[in-house]
């Protein structure tokens, strides 16, 4: 399989990542991959400067999805869903995936030791889990989760059975970095009133001096930090 794995074209029409708090939201079944694949993936993403949200809560969740998780999904440019054998055993994983689809986020699925067709059709290791969920929550509620799994299974993502695990992680990091590097940084076409600010900036940088200087911009969104830089 080529490193440049295809994703659903609809998922690419998302808001530029610099408008979000997070670059990537990680969705995964903790009991399956938290201390293995997902942990290594998270470390590589963060080492490469990718702002990555991972739920580290081990406590039992209540009846509603944690508001922080919902906000993190909405405030992320993309989602990597590590779909393992027990993914559908967690209604929270399915709810995360459904929200990703609802928000039309870029979705990068990793089929971790599972057949993508089983994900798409909710067969194999997922069949009984979905039947159990329908008994608990009703067919109508579970139908939304089924649609999310069907969507994920229909995307040409990463089938871990065809990859060395380290190469798979590097391919994912490469894909994310490529998407981030293609993100346009918007600046006004005809900036007004920047001359005095630019002069002050150049004075602070003292570009003709020897040595290294680091200058940070901070402030609320829309005040002109990107345009000035």
TrEMBL record:
GO biological process, one term: defense response
Domain of life: Eukaryota
Key words, A-Z: NAD
Record-annotated TIR domain positions: 20-180
SMART domains: TIR
InterPro entries: Disease_R_plants (IPR044974), P-loop_NTPase (IPR027417), TIR_dom (IPR000157), Toll_tir_struct_dom_sf (IPR035897)
Protein name per the record: TIR domain-containing protein
Species annotation: Dipteronia sinensis
């Amino acid at each position: 399989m080529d490193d440049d794995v295809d994703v659903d074209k609809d998922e690419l029409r998302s808001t530029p990542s610099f408008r979000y708090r997070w670059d990537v939201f990680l969705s995964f079944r903790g009991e399956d991959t938290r201390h293995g694949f997902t942990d290594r993936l998270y470390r590589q993403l963060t080492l490469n400067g990718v702002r990555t949200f991972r739920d580290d809560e081990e406590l039992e969740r209540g009846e509603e999805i944690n508001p922080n998780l919902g906000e993190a999904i909405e405030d992320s440019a993309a989602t990597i869903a590590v779909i393992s054998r027990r993914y559908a055993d967690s209604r929270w994983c399915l709810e995360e995936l459904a929200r990703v689809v609802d928000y039309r986020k870029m979705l990068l699925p990793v089929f971790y030791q599972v057949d993508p067709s089983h994900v798409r059709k909710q067969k194999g290791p997922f069949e009984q889990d979905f039947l159990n969920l329908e008994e608990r929550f009703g067919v109508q509620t579970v139908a939304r989760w089924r649609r999310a799994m069907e969507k994920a299974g229909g995307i040409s993502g990463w089938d871990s059975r065809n990859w060395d695990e380290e190469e798979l992680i590097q391919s994912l990091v490469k894909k994310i970095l490529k998407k981030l590097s293609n993100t346009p940084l918007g600046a006004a076409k005809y900036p007004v009133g920047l001359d005095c600010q630019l002069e002050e900036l150049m004075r602070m940088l003292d570009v003709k001096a020897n040595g290294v200087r680091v200058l940070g911009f901070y402030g609320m969104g829309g005040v002109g930090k990107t345009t000035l830089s």
